[in-house]
Amino acid sequence: MQNNPSESTSLAIVLAAGKGTRMKSELPKVLVPVAGRPMIRYVIDALNGAGIDRILVVVGYRSDLVRAELASEPNVEFVEQKEQLGTGHAVMMCRDQLAQHRGPVLIVAGDSPLLQVDSVRKLLENFSASECDCVIGTVDKEDPHGYGRIVRDDSGRFMGIVEEKDATSDQQGIREVNVSTYVFDSHQLVAALEQLTDKNAQGEYYITDCPAAMLAVGKNVAAEKVLQPCESMSINNTDELALVEAELQRMAPVK
């Protein structure tokens, strides 16, 4: 049976609990200005532009500032992550809302100001047209250093996400990467979250482990190259911030 988006409102979770330590700022990372606007503003604009009905913003460090910034957004709700124990843990904080939701759940990073409206729409459309329980938005990156690689079998079917530190030399040559943009079936996401553990070097729960947990129990997971190259641009330091600002300027419509 195909996923039917008309069965429910659309729901997005925005991960926004982190501190901007490497940005040389005392602000929450998502409030660091990019071309004069807090970076989370671009994310909210993209979600609204794609027609997302309900947005859950997971806040943590200096949550009061994030709440104040987005207080005027009528479709935004806030979920507190008191301890920052990973991206999977952040989504776990939304379990009550997920349990009441029927249909697709989009998960994006709050520090991704180059998120595009068309990409969000395509990802949701692909999910709705498929029989998948999870669709991962991916992109080919010229220099994939630092990103999780998308591993496929000989027929092109998604097999998993391998983080760079765990990748073999062959896998490190893969250019298709994960940039933390997903659509999950809400029911299957809740089940996958229950399988997550913190048995890793960082002692954290990772949302990137959810697709593998789904595959392990026979669920359908796909990775679709629907994202644009600019959406793989991360902001982890002031140099990367300058590059993203330049890209935003390049993409701005000519007046």
Concise synopsis of the structure shown:
The protein is 29% helix and 22% strand. It is α/β, with parallel strands linked by helices and 255 residues long.
List keywords for this structure.
255 residues; alpha/beta; Spore Coat Polysaccharide Biosynthesis Protein SpsA, Chain A; two-stranded antiparallel ribbon; 11 strands; 29% helix; disordered N terminus; Bifunctional protein GlmU; Nucleotide-diphossugar_trans; transferase
The major pleated sheet works out as:
7 strands, mixed
The appropriate CATH architecture is Alpha-Beta Complex
Sketch the topology as an H/E string, one letter per element: EEEHEHEHHEHEEEHEHHEH
Helix content: 25-40%
**Proportion of β residues?**
15-25%
Strands of the biggest beta sheet: in what spatial order?
A: 5-4-1-6-10-7-11
Q: What class would the helix/strand composition place it in? A: alpha/beta
Tell me the Rg in angstroms: 17 Å
Shape: globular
The helix tally amounts to 9
Count of extended strands: 11
N→C terminal distance: 47 Å
What's the CATH class label?
A: Alpha Beta
